Amino acid sequence: MADINNDQVLAWLSACAEAMTEHKQELTDLDAATGDADHGNNMARGFDKVQGSLEGHAGKPAGDVLKAVAMTLMSSVGGASGPLYGSYFMKAAAAVQGPDGISTDELADMLRAGVDAVKQRGRAETGEKTMIDALEPAAAAAKQAVSDGKDVLAVLEDIVTAAKAGMEYTVELKATKGRASYQGEKSIGHQDPGATSSYYMLHALYDIMTAEFPS
Amino acid sequence: MADINNDQVLAWLSACAEAMTEHKQELTDLDAATGDADHGNNMARGFDKVQGSLEGHAGKPAGDVLKAVAMTLMSSVGGASGPLYGSYFMKAAAAVQGPDGISTDELADMLRAGVDAVKQRGRAETGEKTMIDALEPAAAAAKQAVSDGKDVLAVLEDIVTAAKAGMEYTVELKATKGRASYQGEKSIGHQDPGATSSYYMLHALYDIMTAEFPS
Amino acid sequence: MKKLINAVDDVLTEQLQGMALAHPELSASLDPFYITRADGPTQGEVAVISGGGSGHEPMHGGYVGQGMLAAACPGQIFTSPTPDQMLEAAKAAHGGAGVLFLVKNYTGDVLNFETATELLHMEGIPVQAVLIDDDIAVKDSLHTAGRRGVGATVIIEKIVGAAAASGYDLDQCASLARNLNLRSRSMGMALTSCIVPANGKPTFNLADNEMEIGIGIHGEPGQERIPWQPVDEVTARMTTEILEDVGYSRTVREWDRDAGDWQERELIDDPFGEGDKMIALVNSMGGTPVSELYAVYRKLAQVCEERGIALARNLVGPYITSLEMQGFSITLVKASDDILNFWDAPVHTPALRWGV
Amino acid sequence: MKKLINAVDDVLTEQLQGMALAHPELSASLDPFYITRADGPTQGEVAVISGGGSGHEPMHGGYVGQGMLAAACPGQIFTSPTPDQMLEAAKAAHGGAGVLFLVKNYTGDVLNFETATELLHMEGIPVQAVLIDDDIAVKDSLHTAGRRGVGATVIIEKIVGAAAASGYDLDQCASLARNLNLRSRSMGMALTSCIVPANGKPTFNLADNEMEIGIGIHGEPGQERIPWQPVDEVTARMTTEILEDVGYSRTVREWDRDAGDWQERELIDDPFGEGDKMIALVNSMGGTPVSELYAVYRKLAQVCEERGIALARNLVGPYITSLEMQGFSITLVKASDDILNFWDAPVHTPALRWGV
Ligand SMILES: Nc1ncnc2c1ncn2[C@@H]1O[C@H](COP(=O)(O)OP(=O)(O)O)[C@@H](O)[C@H]1O
Ligand SMILES: Nc1ncnc2c1ncn2[C@@H]1O[C@H](COP(=O)(O)OP(=O)(O)O)[C@@H](O)[C@H]1O
Ligand SMILES: [Mg+2]
Ligand SMILES: [Mg+2]
Ligand SMILES: [Mg+2]
Ligand SMILES: [Mg+2]
After folding, report:
1. Angle, vertex CA A74, rays to CA A73 and CA A75, nearest 5
2. Among C231, C318, C286, CA closest to D2
3. In angstroms, rounded to a whole number, what is the distance separating the alpha carbons of residues A200 and A192?
4. How does DSSP assign D130-172, residue by residue?
5. Of A13, A16, A9, nearest to A100 (Cα)?
6. Residues with CB under 6 A from ligand 1
7. Is the dihedral of CA C134, C295, D349, D288 positive or negative?
8. Gap between the Cα atoms of B177 and B187, Å rounded
9. Looking at residues A40-48, what average pLDDT do you find?
10. A39 CA distance to ligand 1 centroid (A)?
């Protein structure tokens, strides 16, 4: 049985679009500090396209939807984050097989496959002050929570908590990948925009699931 | 007999250079209001060249010196004022014949020939807010003072007084010639830079003569 | 004042030295200032010569070379060059077929070139001078020094240079230049001022939300200072004014080589209308990048198309600038087949090159 | 923000429309964005394709045409284009002899072009990608994304475009591009920031008396922020750093068409020394007029001459800009006779044209 059904997947993607638009200025301001002040615009543009495509995806299996989202992000985000989020969703999609939605097991696999794809495409590891610093702990937390037998809301709570901690940890890190790396030591003290958008993306899933099942 | 001897002519030209340098900023500021903010630079550059040439003119008749000055101004002032002051000195030079200097009669002829040359080259008349508005009354005053039989200092005093009045009158005028004409009505209320440099030029002659014969 | 300069007094000399180093096909005289073709003078060809205050680069030095100018005389920044420069440049570039001075209509340029014309005549060199006054922003021309010479200068220098290279004689070159001027209209605008090095402060001040329509290339005031508008609005306004400007008349002085004196003559603009083919220049004032000019060109082309006017050729870029001023100007020159042939003829200068 | 634009979201589309109108020899696709030759694809010729964020005009769209690029992919301003654009552009420009992507080394460009390379390979089109990373201002390259691609891009696009037109095959073109990159070094500086339309405020802030040495073309910070210096001092410093920079090494990924995968390879810069002949680019960041660049060129030539280095060819002007930023960059590319022949070969693009 799917813990997150296909409709909820669509709702999640729509919530991502809303989150990116809501936090557009914040993401851009973070990027202004260490990069080129476009991350908010890039993410908002990309997820806006995704949102526009969702109607056409109604009723489709989650895996297919996520694959289409990957292509949309790849062709509309631009910059470094475009191909990285594109790879994330592409490999995440491949981890989802069921016709009805995503199980918690698949959720953990998705997050692992996604972050591994980002690492490979970006030739980066944790600790380099990138989105990986939010995505990797989130994937690890998902795996742990699932093997602890937690339910979907509890798994998502762990994911969000881990992503948040990872995101906040990037403040202390020195960037060694991406545009922020040109700032060297000066990058320390600023939170990474990509880690921040990753956190909002995962948080959006938690949000729509808790909205449906308020505790 | 020369009322203004050859040495005094050289001293006058040198005093002109000092006056243009001293008032460079003022002339440029006047030009900034109605033109292109270069009149002080142009005049200072031109008379600086003149000053540099004076040593070589020691002992030469005033007419020859003034002709050389005309060429120097023509080739170093630039802008509208360069050929105008060039023509002024060129025609003024032709009015001076004596080997020893300039008589008051010749002075009056000089000023007349000079301003007529400016009018011809510039296709302008009095009342158009140009140097002519200082030079024309100065020439008329010279003629009057000489026919009244005044001595050189008195003639120069009349010249300077007339030039000053003409210069100040330009404040009220609307420019219809030169760069200031593009300002139309907005040129009213500002003193013309060329009329101002003409006044300083004539004033310099008065200065060196009164310095030599303090009353 | 943040500029790429050393001492203010050396700016012009050093820039000319750099230009000569970068373009060995030119030679630069530093005293007096003038630029000629290193392989000149071209025997039997009319020497088309222009000049004016510096600060409008690449004009005029960047237009010296095969198929365009034989020489250029740069004055101090925004200040007319002087007759001695013009005389020396003309003597250096004269190839036995006479000298044509192309003069932008500013009092300083006019008076200095007139003086040079007289001097050159006294030296026995056949000479003519043609005024360029295409800036329609000057409306009250009866009570001013008249329209200013702006963007048409670039196009006229190219076309008359090609005509000279093709064998036109002095009077033919002069009459072509004169006709072209009557078929040319321009208008400019500024987003920011520029700073003349010798002054060290902005020539004028525009507020953060203001622009000035009808600006001259030395920051002469225009028609109106207005709040910022989208590029489409400004472009449509300027294009419409250019297309609808008719019947401008001016009295020019022409040099009578037989009489050795100036003769006055009245010349009236040739109107634009449906079916005309234009050469269009969308010009950067210096600080506006070419990307923004393409937005101007887009609207210009739309407005012209609506009126049945074709843009047969174009230049989009910094061709006649005002130091680092931000803004643009539009110039339209009504072409004919002959004019287009001269336009398409080979040209090899630092700033304009094709066919060779 | 005072710019010649309409709505921020329409900037790119409208500029491309204007460019296509002004240059009928090009054709512009608006969805996705790419520019190709109107007369393309050129059968049997390797399609040299580049792309990158917009805001650097005339790069890259202004270099599409005979003897240079077969296509260009403009991204949003200062944001890499996306793989779908690259794929469509490549398919439109492919003349049967393969596609070479010239990629400036920015994470975004690299990742998007890598994705496009993989997609193109899957479509059965022979493809290779070469990185350009000539900006020596990035010193701590081991702990960063590496040197950035700047001015050398223009020169490499010209030379490899000429090689492709002369019949070089895909691997020859790629190896020429790779070699040229190892013979290229650049450095830039800024006097002012620029404003990205979507942001509406300056990318960084420089005080009235400050300049930034080593700036990147998107305003990436450089080596040092210093009080204003005369152009001679700044130019001498930058030239010396460029000439003395030796031994830079980087690991690049090359596409293995047989394995259908990336192979890593280490490449080390070719040093500069006495007797070298250079192609020099003195480039405006967009808002600096060409007159000031000539002062830079003058000092650059002096420093090179003192070291027995010849400037065999040069470009002086706005070739790779950062919107309206004021400042300049210097690029030196060590030439050979072959390289100079390709440089001199005919080129006909909006921004670079000679011999045709
Ligand atoms: N090599 C990399 N690996 C993983 N993530 C990266 C890498 N380079 C950059 N990023 C992420 O991308 C974010 C920047 O994205 P964005 O601003 O959209 O692109 P750009 O840097 O091209 O402007 C960074 O904050 C970082 O999280
Ligand atoms: N047609 C003219 N006739 C007489 N004087 C003129 C004429 N045009 C300009 N002037 C004078 O020249 C002065 C400006 O000189 P200057 O600033 O040196 O040259 P420019 O106007 O070329 O910058 C004006 O203030 C005016 O007195
Ligand atoms: Mg960014
Ligand atoms: Mg002036
Ligand atoms: Mg002037
Ligand atoms: Mg970016």
Report:
1. 90
2. C231
3. 13
4. EEE--BTT---GGGSS-PPP-THHHHHHHHHHHHHHTT--HHH
5. A9
6. A 31, 35-36, 38-39, 42, 79-81, 84, 118, 122, 124, 130-132, 177-179, 192-195; D 79-80, 107-108
7. positive
8. 11
9. 96
10. 8
Buried-exposed string D296-330: b where 16+ CB fall within 10 A, e elsewhere: bbbbbbbbbeebebebbbbbbbbbbbbbbbbbbbb
Mean pLDDT of C54-60: 98
Contacting C residues, span 219-278, partner chain D, CB-CB under 8 Å? 228, 230-232, 234
Complex ipTM: 0.93
pLDDT at A213 over 80: no
**Cα–Cα dist B24/B30, whole Å:** 10
How, if at all, do strands D353-354 and C353-354 pair?
Answer: unpaired
Give C186's DSSP letter.
Answer: E
DSSP string, A64-123: HHHHHHHHHHHHHT-TTHHHHHHHHHHHHHHT---SSEE-HHHHHHHHHHHHHHHHHHHT
The owner of tokens 């040319």 is C184
pLDDT band at B215 (very low <50, low <70, confident <90, very high): low
Ligand nearest to the Cα of A197, by number: 1
Question: Could you give the CA distance from residue B182 to residue D212 in angstroms, rounded to a whole number?
Answer: 40
| Token pair listed for C326 | 């931000």
N- to C-terminal Cα distance for chain A?
21
Q: Bridge-partner residues for D325, per DSSP?
A: D286
Q: What residues 303-332 of chain D have any CB closer than 8 A to a CB of chain C?
A: 311, 314, 316, 318, 321, 323-324, 326, 328
> At which residue do the structure tokens 């003309």 appear?
C90
- Secondary structure string (H, E, C) spanning B51-102: HHHHHHHCCCCHHHHHHHHHHHHHHHCCCCHHHHHHHHHHHHHHCCCCCCEE
| SS3 state of residue C310 | strand
Q: Which residues line ligand 2 (CB under 6 A)?
A: B 31, 35-36, 38-39, 42, 79-81, 84, 118, 122, 124, 130-132, 177-179, 192-195; C 79-80, 107-108
Tell me the average pLDDT across C87-112. Answer: 97
Phi then psi for residue D331, to 5 deg, are -125, 135
- Phi first, then psi, for residue D280 (nearest 5°) are -110, 135
To probe the interface with D, which of A34, A43, A81, A179 has the most D CB atoms within 10 Å?
A179
C-alpha B12 chain-centroid distance: 11
Alpha helices in C264-332 (DSSP H): 290-306
Catalytic member of C23, C60, C121, C218: C218
Block residue for tokens 């030296």? C123
At residue B200, φ and ψ (nearest 5 deg) are -65, -35
Asked whether the beta carbons of D67 and D348 are under 8 A apart, the reply is: yes
Tell me which residue has tokens 């909006």. D350
The span from the CA of D70 to the CA of C259, in Å, is: 60
What is the sign of the dihedral through the CA atoms of B152, B157, B161 and B163? positive
The one-letter amino acid code at D215 reads: I
pLDDT at A85 over 70: yes
Looking at the predicted structure, is the pLDDT value of residue D112 above 80?
yes
Name the pLDDT band for D199 (thresholds 50, 70, 90).
Answer: confident
pLDDT tier at A214, thresholds 50, 70, 90: low
CB proximity D210 to A under 8 Å? no
Who wins on pLDDT, B38 or C173? C173
Angle at which helices B39-54 and B6-22 cross, to 10°: 150
User: Are residues A89 and A67 in contact, defined by beta-carbon separation less than 8 angstroms?
Assistant: yes
